[in-house]
């Protein structure tokens, strides 16, 4: 169904006939309020705001009957009203909201997601229907959301250097909204980045004249910062906006909001919101953060600290996430928590940023996450009082007042029902202890059961006398509130709810329900849990599958209802993820030294692996969490095999932090279990991360330990890859003869093991060492042999890396045409394989070949790309080589200007 333009319904590739104007208007009203109970009176008021025919009720029912022939079960009766039940992929307005929300959660893919969202618009919403006053709020929200999404997308284009494309759109948008300072600020920055400073300053000056002359206002801080960036000739990057959306039915808390907004604008000390579970700490914090957002033009950061989970997040992991958001990734992340904290504070120095730290566990968890700059502010929520946090403003939330509780119940259950039975409504709120979360559960039950009177729910609460007493204090209040919904679940929904809690605090796709229950055809149970407000939708991932998450408190509550065979269900699900990870890993370029286990095929959605890199991207955080879950459950074999299966993807996209953390967690598990096979594989994997980070002492120690374990297991392949890894360490230390010794012994063992992919790798490495030693013919023999073997194996990735070495060899022997051919072929292969680290390595070699062949300008562009990759991933080995090549390119470009210079 489509409302972002003319109203349309498509089925089986055909546009349906929706009937006359009134019938289409009724459908439009239901679509604008999709998944919400719309009373008969509301429909009549919307369609006939003034005069109404006598048969108005019958007319509505006739229209509904006709639409049901088209919409089947999607249009349902709720009491005396109706609800149009649609998923995001069934209504363009819902899909638009979903894509925009996903763009907030995934900054790396935000630009593409916003473009998809905007492509859903075909004109003005419902432009083929007469206007109705009842639609005004919904249409205004859609228009504002579209404008905000367009602004965000244009801001991302400017930030990514697409200024020329963005400037015409920004000019048109500013002409349409001449007082919108955010659009003006983006246009100023875009013109500045496009080296059009005079135009940028004129745009600012024109806006200031408009604001002061027509409204008597000076430009806001964000727009003034954009002007200053132009005047200082410095970049002004697009600020981060990570805050989750605020709830539309927020009620009460006026006093707390006033205190918090004042404190945050002053920014002198952290503001801490504490209180019992279910009292609305996070809801209040997000609301306040949005209200003060304009005071922090450089961005708003948001992190869930998982304080109510079994394993609150470590400060080091949280700092990794924050630094990723600020552009620091790969080996650029310091290893020590204190160093990460210092880098985080440095990145925020001189900036005005709001940091929201949700669900904190302790002061020790918070301290490394606090910025030092006075221009920044911190807003914290926690179940615990954090009185020992120095200088913090403490705001402790209590349950709602009766008036606030009634307001929230009215917003959820409907004004007509609550006003008709105010005493019954007050009794329900009192039975819920006036806790916001409990009232939300009660209101949701009423909203989903239009035929119930208020008295029915009140009597059900009274019958639960024991639980009513529990509603008066602390965490028990939340458990009692949850029970109101849990008791309404079918046996299979209840089982799914309890089993999903085994998956920890991570989001997950819906297919895991079938695996957890061991029963095909049960994936639909997630819909019942979402309807019962026991499961949160978490958007769609990069491969299009919807994802879900249990709120931490709900998950803890579900774990109190442990069912038989829970461990078997968990292991079955983890093995399904393992099989998918192994299958996806085997479709990626081979990572030298990694052990991908041979696992038994299990029932799992293999069709999701059509694009293995995209699948790994979608599941990355969940897979990392699955390693923790397996280790905690004593499933050491699953833990290490899953960690190892992720390595080809981690290697391809330089996710060194995830690589090291999952291996370290799995290593503790296998050591506790005495699993020497897993220990050897993990030590070998961790050592590779040390090599990438130039931590050669740690790498050598780990490789020697792995080699010794492999020797005791009589594993020739493991010994060979470990010894070859030590050869890499010595090669990088420029101890070439020592390197050849380890390479040679490693090669002998790998040939005995029959691992031809690794044999090709080591032969190429030996050729590279001979080239470094000035032995070109010996190097050519080894490299040619390695390339032939890689080609025979169909290992394009390995062949490309050999071609890079052959190109360097040809340069040293003066074979410059062949040098260029080899380097171009290598870059083409690696680009197609989306291996950004190795592509950068090959780009540097291609740049050298271009310099040798008299094309320094083309080399300069390539080296800029490679340097950007090295900086983003923290590749300490690659960046110096790229810089040296860049200097040679510049020098060669200067030579082109000399008289009589003839390029090759």
Topology:
Layout: E1 10-11, E2 14-15, H1 21-32, H2 40-47, H3 56-71, E3 75-78, E4 81-84, H4 92-105, H5 110-119, H6 136-159, H7 163-176, H8 181-193, H9 197-215, H10 221-232, E5 240-241, H11 254-266, E6 271-274, H12 281-291, E7 299-304, H13 315-325, H14 337-348, E8 354-360, H15 363-366, E9 377-382, E10 393-396, H16 402-413, H17 415-420, H18 422-431, H19 436-447, H20 454-463, H21 465-470, H22 474-486, H23 491-500, E11 508-509, H24 512-517, H25 525-531, E12 536-540, E13 546-549, H26 552-559, H27 566-585, H28 612-632, H29 636-645, H30 647-652, H31 656-673, H32 676-692, H33 696-713, H34 716-732, H35 736-753, H36 756-772, H37 776-793, H38 796-812, H39 816-832, H40 836-852, H41 856-873, H42 878-895
Parallel strand pairs: 5-7, 6-9, 6-10, 7-8, 8-9
Antiparallel strand pairs: 1-2, 3-4, 11-13, 12-13
Helix pairs in contact: 1-3, 4-5, 5-6, 6-7, 6-8, 7-8, 8-9, 8-10, 9-10, 13-14, 16-18, 16-19, 18-20, 19-22, 23-25, 27-28, 27-29, 28-29, 28-31, 29-31, 29-32, 31-32, 32-33, 32-34, 33-34, 34-35, 34-36, 35-36, 36-37, 36-38, 37-38, 38-39, 38-40, 39-40, 40-41, 40-42, 41-42
What's the level 1 CATH class of the largest domain? Mainly Alpha
Strand residue percentage: 5-15%
Number of domains: 6
Treating each run of at least 4 consecutive H or I residues as one helix, how many helices?
A: 42
The CATH superfamily of the largest domain bears the name Winged helix-like DNA-binding domain superfamily/Winged helix DNA-binding domain
The largest beta-sheet arranges its strands as: 5-7-8-9-6-10
Q: How does CATH name the architecture of the largest domain?
A: Orthogonal Bundle
* Secondary-structure-derived class: mainly alpha
Q: Kindly report the average pLDDT value.
A: 85
How many beta-strand elements? 13
**Which residue ranges are poorly predicted, with pLDDT under 50 across at least 5 consecutive positions?**
463-478, 896-904
Radius of gyration using CA atoms only = 31 Å
CA-CA gap between termini: 62 Å
What is the fold named in CATH at topology level of the largest domain?
Answer: Arc Repressor Mutant, subunit A
Shape: globular
């Amino acid at each position: 169904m489509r409302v972002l333009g003319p109203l349309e319904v498509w089925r089986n590739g055909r546009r349906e006939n929706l009937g006359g104007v009134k019938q289409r208007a009724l459908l439009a009203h239901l679509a604008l309020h999709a998944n919400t109970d719309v009373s008969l009176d509301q429909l009549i008021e919307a369609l006939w705001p003034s005069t109404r025919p006598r048969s108005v009720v019958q007319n509505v029912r006739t229209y509904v009957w006709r639409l049901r022939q088209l919409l089947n079960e999607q249009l349902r009766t709720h009491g005396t009203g109706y609800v149009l039940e649609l998923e995001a992929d069934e209504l363009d307005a819902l899909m638009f909201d979903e894509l925009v929300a996903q763009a907030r959660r995934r900054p790396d893919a935000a630009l593409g997601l916003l473009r998809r969202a905007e492509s859903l618009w075909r004109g003005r919403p419902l432009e083929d229907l007469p206007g109705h006053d009842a639609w005004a709020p919904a249409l205004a929200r859609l228009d504002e959301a579209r404008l905000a999404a367009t602004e965000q997308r244009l801001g991302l284009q400017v930030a990514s250097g697409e200024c020329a494309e963005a400037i015409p759109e920004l000019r048109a948008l500013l002409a349409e909204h001449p007082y919108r300072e955010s659009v003006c600020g983006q246009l100023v920055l875009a013109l500045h980045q496009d080296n059009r400073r005079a135009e940028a300053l004129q745009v600012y000056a024109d806006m200031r004249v408009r604001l002061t002359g027509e409204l008597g206002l000076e430009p806001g801080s964000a727009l003034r910062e954009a002007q200053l960036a132009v005047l200082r000739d410095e970049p002004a990057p697009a600020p981060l906006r990570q805050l989750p959306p605020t709830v539309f039915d927020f009620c009460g808390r006026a006093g707390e909001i006033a205190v918090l907004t004042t404190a945050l604008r002053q920014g002198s000390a952290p503001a801490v919101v504490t209180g019992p579970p279910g009292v609305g700490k996070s809801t209040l914090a997000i609301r306040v953060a949005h209200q003060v957002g304009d005071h922090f033009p450089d961005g708003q950061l948001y992190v869930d600290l998982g304080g109510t989970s079994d394993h609150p997040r470590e400060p080091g992991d949280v700092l990794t996430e924050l630094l990723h958001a600020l552009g620091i990734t790969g080996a650029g992340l310091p290893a020590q928590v204190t160093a990460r904290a210092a880098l985080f504070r440095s990145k925020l120095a001189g900036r005005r940023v709001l940091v929201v730290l949700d669900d904190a566990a302790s002061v020790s968890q918070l301290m490394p996450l606090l910025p030092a700059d006075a221009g920044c502010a911190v807003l914290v929520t926690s179940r615990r009082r954090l009185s020992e946090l120095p200088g913090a403003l403490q705001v402790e939330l209590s349950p709602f007042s009766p008036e606030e509780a009634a307001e929230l119940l009215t917003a959820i259950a409907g004004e007509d029902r609550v006003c008709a039975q105010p005493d019954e409504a007050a009794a329900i709120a009192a039975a819920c202890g006036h806790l916001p979360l409990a009232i939300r559960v009660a209101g949701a039950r009423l909203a989903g059961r239009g035929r119930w009177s208020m008295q029915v729910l009140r009597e059900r609460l009274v019958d639960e006398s024991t639980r009513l007493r529990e509603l008066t204090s602390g965490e028990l209040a939340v458990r009692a509130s949850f029970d109101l919904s849990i008791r309404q679940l079918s046996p299979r929904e209840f089982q799914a709810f309890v089993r999903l809690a085994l998956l920890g605090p991570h989001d997950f796709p819906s297919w895991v329900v079938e695996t957890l229950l061991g029963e095909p055809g049960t994936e639909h149970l997630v819909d019942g849990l979402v309807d019962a407000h026991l499961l949160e939708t978490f958007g769609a991932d990069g491969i299009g599958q919807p994802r879900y998450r249990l709120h931490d408190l709900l998950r803890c509550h579900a774990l109190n209802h442990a069912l038989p065979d829970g461990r078997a269900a968990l292991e079955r699900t983890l093995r399904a993820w393992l099989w998918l990870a192994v299958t996806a890993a085997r479709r990626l370029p081979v990572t030298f030294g990694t052990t991908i286990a041979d696992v038994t095929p299990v029932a799992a959605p293999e069709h999701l692996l059509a694009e293995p890199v995209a699948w790994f991207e979608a599941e990355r955080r969940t897979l990392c969490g699955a390693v923790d879950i397996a280790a905690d459950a004593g499933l050491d074999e699953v833990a290490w095999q899953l960690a190892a299966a992720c390595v080809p993807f981690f290697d391809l996209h330089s996710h060194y932090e995830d690589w090291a953390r999952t291996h370290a967690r799995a290593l503790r598990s296998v050591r506790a279990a005495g699993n020497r096979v897993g220990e050897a594989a993990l030590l070998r994997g961790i050592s590779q991360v040390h090599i990438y980070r130039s931590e050669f002492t740690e790498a050598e120690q780990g490789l020697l330990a792995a080699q010794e374990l492999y020797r005791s297991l009589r594993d020739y392949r493991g010994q060979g890859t470990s010894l070859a890894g030590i050869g890499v360490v010595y090669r990088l230390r420029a101890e070439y003869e020592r390197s050849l010794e380890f390479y040679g012994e490693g090669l002998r063992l790998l040939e005995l093991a029959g691992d031809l992919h690794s044999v090709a790798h080591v032969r190429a490495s030996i050729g590279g060492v001979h080239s470094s030693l000035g032995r070109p013919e010996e190097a050519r023999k080894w490299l040619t042999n390695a390339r032939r073997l890689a080609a025979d194996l169909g290992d394009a990735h390995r062949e490309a890396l050999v071609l890079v070495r052959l190109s360097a060899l040809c340069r040293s022997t003066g074979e410059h045409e062949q040098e260029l051919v080899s380097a171009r072929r290598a870059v083409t292969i690696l680009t197609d394989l989306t291996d950004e680290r190795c592509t950068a390595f090959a780009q540097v070699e291609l740049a050298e070949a271009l310099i040798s062949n008299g094309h320094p300008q083309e080399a300069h562009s390539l080296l800029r790309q490679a340097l950007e990759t090295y900086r983003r991933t923290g590749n300490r080995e690659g960046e110096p080589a790229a810089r040296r090549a860049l200097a040679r390119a510049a020098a060669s470009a200067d030579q082109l200007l000399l008289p009589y210079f003839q390029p090759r």
